[in-house]
Every structure is written in C-alpha cells, then in structure tokens.
Protein: Class I SAM-dependent methyltransferase
Amino acid sequence: MSTPFDRQFWEDRYASAHAVWSGEPNPNLVAEVAGLEPGDALDAGAGEGADAVWLAGKGWRVKAVDFSATALERAATRGSDVDWERADLTEWSPEPASYDLVSAQYLHLPGLAEVLPRLGAGVRPGGILLVVGHERSDAHPFPELCYPAKEMAGWLDDGWEILISEPRPGRESTRRDEVLKARRRA
Ligand SMILES: C[S@@+](CC[C@H](N)C(=O)[O-])C[C@H]1O[C@@H](n2cnc3c(N)ncnc32)[C@H](O)[C@@H]1O
Structure:
C-alpha cells in the first residue's frame, strides 16, 4: 500500500497514462531562469523531463533525478542531452557546490525541510536554488505537503540570499505556485 506521494504512488500515476504532464516547461522556471547564464543544472524530481529538456535546449548541462523508472524512461525518449538518474532524493545528495542552478518543481514530499538544504548544498557560490510548489489549499490531496515559500526560506541558513519567497501565478489557473528563489552567497 502506498503512502502520500511515495515511489509506488508515482509509479502508479505514471503507469496510468501515456503522459501525465503537459510536456511544457513550468512557467515559473522559464521566468526565473530567463536571465541566468547557462551552466550546470540539477532538476530534482524531474518527472517526464519537460523542464530538464527545456533547460538543455537553452544551453544548460543538465542532470535530472527522479525515483520513478517509468517517468525517467519516458523522459529519456525525448532524446535530449540530459543525464537522467534514478534515485530517491530523501537519500541522494548532489556533489557539493557543483551546480549553477538547482531546481525543484512540484517536489511535494514529506521531509522536504531536510531534503531542500541538502539539495542546496549542491549549488555553487553565486548559484541559484529555485523551488516551485503548489500553494496550500484544501483542494490539494495533501495540503500538508504544500509548503509556503516563506516557510521553505526558513529552512535555509544565512549562507543564502532570498530573492523571492512568495506565491505567484503558476501553470494552473485555479491555484498559485509558491516560489522560492535563493542565491548562494559567494
Ligand atoms: C508533481 S511531480 C513533478 C514533476 C516535474 N518536476 C514537473 O514539474 O512536471 C513530482 C515528481 O517528483 C518525484 N519524486 C517525488 N518524491 C521523490 C523522491 N523522494 N525522490 C525522487 N523523486 C521524487 C516524482 O516521481 C514525480 O516525478
């Protein structure tokens, strides 16, 4: 039996459809990455790979991690030059200070408060941590896993400059995204 948003939940979700997501990159990723110089990027919880493929198309060298084999197989068929890796982000850690961008889009999971600073340790000085999630709402199946951006900002230490921590319009018309954008101090 699966618990909220665990690996079996996601495998079942991906197995239930040919494509779960639109195939388009997330609007807040596009908006916030637009002004950045391409470098090394990590997409944490990459799903079917739309964001990773979009980043690669913009000149980023991308590593994309997800724990769903079905999602990653689907992502890899998109034929882009992305380094796909199957791993559980509650256990996996990036190489320290090795990415110019670490992006987590809709990575709703228990224990994110512990996972996020660990992913952030993968960001180089001057690099960006971008986290986008659903705004908390009773319409969400697991509202307790929807973290306000200001709460997520509080999980980071003072080695970070918080650039954005607020709800913004997102990919769904009915609910906003919580957007956290932070720069690692040099
Ligand atoms: C809501 S989907 C978002 C996918 C993609 N980022 C997007 O925006 O289209 C969340 C993704 O996170 C992945 N995920 C959730 N918990 C994870 C974990 N502990 N380790 C690795 N991936 C995880 C799921 O498999 C799923 O693909």
